[in-house]
Amino acid sequence: MVLAAGLPVAGALPVMAAAQESPLPTPVPLQWLDGKAPTLTGGVTFGVPWPKGAVPATTDFGLQQAAGEQLPLQSWPLAYWPDGSLKWTAHATTWQNTPPDNLLLMPQKAPTTGTAPLATESAEAITIRTGIIETVINKKGAVIIQSLARNGKTIAQEGKLVLLTRSNPDNDPGEPVNTVQFTGSIDKITLEQNGPIRSVVKIEGRHTNATGRVWLPFILRLYFYKDSDALRVLHTIIYDGDEQKDFISGLGIRFTVPLQEELHNRHIRFAGAGQGVFAEAVRGLTGLRRDPGKNITTAQVAGQTTPLLSSFPEAVAQRLQYIPAFGDYTLFQSSPNAFDIQKRTRAGYGWIQAAHGTRSEGLVYLGTPSGGIALGIRNCWQSYPAQFDIRNAHTEKGELTAWLWAPKAGAMDLRFYHDGMGQDTFTEQREGLEITYEDYEPGFGTPLGVARTSELQVHILPVTPSAQQFAQLAAALQQPPLLVATPATFTTAGVFGMSWYQQSGNSDQKATLEKQLDGYFNYYRQQVDQHHWYGFWNYGDVMHSYDRDRHVWKYDIGGFAWDNSELSTDLWLWYYFLYTGRADVFRMAEAMTRHTGEVDVHHLGRFSPLGSRHNVQHWGCSAKQLRISTVANRRFYYYLTADERVGDLMREQVEAVRTLHHIVPGRKVGQQAATAAGYANVAFGTDWGAIAAAWLTEWERTGNAHSRERLFNSMRTIGQQPYGFFSGAADMELATGKFQLTKKAKPQASHLSAVFGLAEICAELIALTDIPAFEKAWLQYCELYNASAEQQRAALGSDLGKLNLRQAHARLTAFAARCKQDTALAARAWNEFFEGGAGIRNPMPAIKHLQGPQVLNPVEEADNISTNAVAQWGLTALILLGIIGPALPDK
């Protein structure tokens, strides 16, 4: 493609114009992420990339199996190339009975499948009819979902959000505890999408209590598919309380379930680990002193209607009232490795222990043989503490609650973890940074504005599911089906800077690199489980550095604990997925995207929308930076899944540069604040790379001219700086994106500038735009960063001094080599990579297996493992294989 010839793309148009008509590309083959077609009826949304100029914006699409059978399809654009042609499209489809496989997406006129949208709207409510279920969603008030019905029968109603807070998080003996109840109240509702296949409702609001207090904003998205009995729920909270006073002790969603059948025909189901199912009835008929008969007990255990009471043996029928009816059940996932189930007859009576298990699949059912509701939390045990409550199942109105934060777990404590240790001055704070790597400053370690997004699923079922069906529902909840394109499709389309990607052929050296890539990913995947990197606020992240003496990751040491995207761990995982198409890589990258985009970023308050650097607590570091909140880390998941919440997070970053006017990201290391109003001091590396990613993504998603112009202005004025990227930083005019020209006495470089997505975003920008000064400046930076001092002096007038992360910057050398078609530079890049400067010099180290009494739990340990080094090694290896793969030396 373009970079293969070393030439820039022709200039982008001032606005997105319609693409010229050209032959449409061949159909895109799609595959199920997990390698097999789903076993249940359902729906799926997925994204597909297209080469520049290949698919006009007016193109329709069809979806068919290899045998020619057409599937219903709803399509919409996600992004455009500068010429107006489609870059990414999103698609939704559904299926019944036989799950589809061997699918092809066809750029063509889609088959007519009925144009009636799923939703209708009135002044009071939005009603969704999928053809299987009918859902009524209120537009105001505390009852969000008025009713969920199937075949005209109301299965569940009064769907609402519930919140509990406590006055004392520590629960010390003798300390008074006051619990306050809140309910989510609707502020705004939007029918975001309303098509014949898929409809999406967005609900925004806050939680209120009886005294009128309003706090804890929420965003709820409800997803519906044609001919589906499922409702997907995406639940987001943004913490806006006082962490010294507002201690959340319960957070969940609740439904009322009408129950009319006999107590012995009311069924409870909980999913355990794997295929495990806990199945009981409110009033059990098994194990009695007087046996009702096999036909009756078999029916009850299977969840089927028992024979009529008149057919019961008299010894049983006349004594049913003496069999306890258990109306209340609770499953409590207290840790990633343990849950228990308890039950009681009703409030005011004692609980009895019913069962224990390890990792619940997070699904509960309450209903009868004539219908019921299954409610589940995705990543239930990974996001512990979770809890499922069934209440009053012995009455005509049962209650089902899925708690994302379990009331039985005690209060959520978001307070900072130390008192500052006397770090009251800048000098003392720098000293603290020297010893624990923690960037501390009073008032900065606040959780104000951090968010958490959870995913739930609701099924409105016609009957009590069999044990096998219930286990299948639980499995689909935890690994929802997703259609993805093949790695070859991403390469052909040239998205994410992959227009340079090429296979480097087969060689022993390439096989060694791929084995090492595989080894590092597998190691981190295992570390997540062995060190239990789980929990409501933690799941999705990894740790930064390892303590070989204690044989633990440095979970309690300043800036060495949670990684918070440091040195582009997110990018490493996503590019590795694009390279391999592996489902386990996708799932880990997905969890990281959810976490780092929500928990590690302030979404309101004075730090919004900046992210927090690595720390013992995700929000604890006083360095609030765009390099953490960067859109560069989010784009992959958005374009692969069309996820609306991640779309919100990316849009949130479009004006993030304005926060840099009063929050200077590098104030502890010499970066100065802009003094003039309407300006911010912006470093050309970690700051501008994130800004460019936000503006580029907004431009390609919407054609927004303002984002485009600011992006282009910033690129031009970087190219005009006296030393280009080596000028380091300058004041940016926020309204226009233009940098003021600096008057640097000599060039400078930071080893961090290009390792937070800058290199990858610049590769895309050079392929997309025609700004020669910018391209020249970036190629100069790429060629000279790892060059000799003599080469630097010859080009810049002085050398750059001692620089770090030489191995990671080998991918910059490789980019220059590819653009200039310079074989010497390509050889230099591979040499820099294998030398391993400030990175990884050797193959994957041997793994040691440690067990008690040396460690608390058995773990695997690799010498000299660092997340920084692994993420950068992985990224660099992948990019060198793509950019200059043929130059890979044999040994």
Overview of the structural elements:
- The chain is of the alpha+beta class and 891 residues long.
- Helix content is 25%, strand content 26%.
- It has a 20-stranded antiparallel β-sheet that branches. The protein has a five-stranded antiparallel β-sheet with strand order 4-3-7-1-28. A three-stranded antiparallel β-sheet has the order 2-6-5.
- A hairpin with a 3-residue loop joins β8 (119-121) and β9.
- The radius of gyration is 29 Å and the shape is globular.
- The protein starts with 27 loop residues before the first strand and ends in a 7-residue tail after the last helix.
- The model is unreliable at 1-22 (pLDDT under 50).
Keywords:
5-stranded antiparallel β-sheet, alpha+beta, 19 helices, disordered N terminus, 891 residues
Please describe the topology of this protein.
Elements: E1 28-32, E2 42-49, E3 61-65, E4 70-71, E5 74-80, E6 86-95, E7 103-107, E8 119-121, E9 125-129, E10 133-138, E11 145-150, E12 153-166, E13 179-194, E14 198-208, E15 214-225, E16 230-238, E17 247-258, E18 267-271, E19 277-281, H1 294-302, H2 314-317, E20 328-335, E21 338-344, E22 352-357, E23 363-368, E24 371-377, E25 386-391, E26 397-405, H3 426-436, E27 451-461, H4 467-478, E28 483-485, H5 487-493, H6 508-530, E29 546-547, E30 552-553, H7 569-580, H8 583-598, E31 611-612, E32 624-625, H9 626-629, H10 635-641, H11 644-652, E33 679-683, H12 686-702, H13 705-719, E34 729-733, H14 758-768, H15 772-784, H16 789-796, H17 810-820, H18 823-835, E35 847-850, E36 859-862, H19 867-884
Antiparallel strand pairs: 1-7, 1-28, 2-6, 3-4, 3-7, 5-6, 8-9, 9-10, 10-11, 11-12, 12-13, 12-17, 13-14, 14-15, 15-16, 16-27, 17-26, 18-19, 18-23, 20-21, 20-25, 21-22, 23-24, 24-27, 25-26, 29-30, 31-32, 33-34, 35-36
